Amino acid sequence: MASTNGPDTPVVEANSAGDVPDTGMRALQDRIRQQELLAELGVTALQGATLEQLLNETVRLAAKGLNADFCKVLEHIPTSNRFLVRAGVGWDKGVVGSATVGADLDSPAGFALRTGKSVISNHLENEERFRTSELLKQHGVRRAMNVILQGDGKPFGVLEVDSRSDDEFLEHDLAFLQGVANILGMAIERERHERKLNAALEKHKFLLAEMNHRVKNSLSIVTSMLNLQARDIANPELTGYLNEAANRIAAVAKFHDQLSYGSDFERMDIGQYVTSICKNFDENVAHCEMVIDVVDGMFVATDRAVAVAMIVNELITNAAKYAYKNNVGGKVHIKVVKDSPAAFTLSVRDEGVGVASGFDILESKGLGMRIVKAFAKQLDAKVAVQSHDPGIEFVISIPLDAAPS
């Protein structure tokens, strides 16, 4: 049975003379070639190969470096206490991905997994320490080496090289195979960490989307309550104020609605967001016709998107309220264009009565204009008003990103 060597000492089968094989017998050229193959595998791991690609490359290079007929990665399956042949080279069709071998201490692979000791068996036909698997017998394997695949966490399994030849695996062969296993083991551990991080990220995204959905629903309830209250009050002026407040809340609710269905919680397509705001105004501006002309594909930070939406909301409300009053069919033109790689322009134009000569609308003390100026300042945007015949146009030049602090 198994040797009683220390935990890091390889278990090596004695040769016919009772001596451990001489590690100096292998030619220097073979050792150099093995180091080159280790470097090749390391580069593959660093270049971000998938786990399956790395497993396949590992067995290929390990077999090549040891002039072996076979190599396999044995993944430990704890529920059955067996190894699955996860990857391999040289084996008959149907072995890789399907065949299993025992993982108990009587198995050389099981012994390597549970003790951390490497195992060399140079004469399987005379092996008395371990059981030789039917898989090896069927393929005429005469010698084998097993080393543990160990990362930072629990062992993944065992890397095994097998050969039909009468040669013997030597100590420096074992060092090469362990080097291969160490590279693969760390890559497997990295893949485990990435998988856990991705799972945590997906859970975070789900919770964030759920939160935005619930906030949107709560704000929609508030909007509905304000609209109901507005309809029940026999005071036209107060009704108007309540409707305006409802529209402002609805704009923020739409923002959270967009976030709950999107995959990017940090940036938002401002063109699509402005379009959704314009299409969701209530009956308060039903007498106006929205003419929307926006460019998609311009992304801004989500907090800046809210500020833009509030400006759009106020300017549309202003046009409906003052440019057209209750006149049906008045057009409100909403346009978003990209000026440069770093900025875009939002414009809202009506075809209404305009403003009196000499009146500076930007100096108005009304709540709507105060909101527009406050959010424009937050965006580091420039606001201009242009007179047309008929109507007026608000032109806001907005940086895509916030100015550095």
Provide a quick synopsis of the model.
The protein has 405 residues and is α+β, with helices and mostly antiparallel strands. 44% of the residues lie in helices and 21% in strands. The longest helix has 62 residues.
Describe the structure.
The protein is α+β, with helices and mostly antiparallel strands and 405 residues long. It has two domains: 11-194, GAF domain (Beta-Lactamase), CATH 3.30.450; 265-399, 2-Layer Sandwich (Heat Shock Protein 90). Helices cover 44% and strands 21% of the residues. It has nine helices and 14 strands. The protein has helices at 28-46, 51-65, 108-115, 134-138, 171-232, 236-261, 270-278, 302-323, 367-378, and strands at 11-12, 70-77, 82-89, 100-102, 119-121, 143-149, 157-163, 267-269, 288-294, 299-301, 330-340, 343-350, 382-387, 392-399. The strands form three sheets. A seven-stranded mixed beta sheet has the order 1-5-6-7-2-3-4, sandwiched between helices. Strands 9-11-12-14-13 form a five-stranded mixed beta sheet, covered by helices on one side. Helix 1 (28-46) runs parallel beside helix 5 and helix 2 (51-65) runs antiparallel to helix 5. The radius of gyration is 36 Å and the shape is elongated.
